[in-house]
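Appendix B, example 12.
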Amino acid sequence: MEGLLGLLILIADIYAIIKILQSSATGLKKLLWIIIILVLPVIGLIIWFFAGPGGKGR
């Protein structure tokens, strides 16, 4: 069960990183968001979902 959960988190993190790279945020903001997601995969993903670049359209 842990393996499946880890895979789902990995997929969600990859999705978030792709969306960050496609956003109109500046290069530094993109880099900071990617670092947050890589260092804190679950917490970073949650924070990005609610406050990340391009969050106004959600």
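The first helix runs from residue 2 to 22. The chain is about 80% helix and 0% strand.
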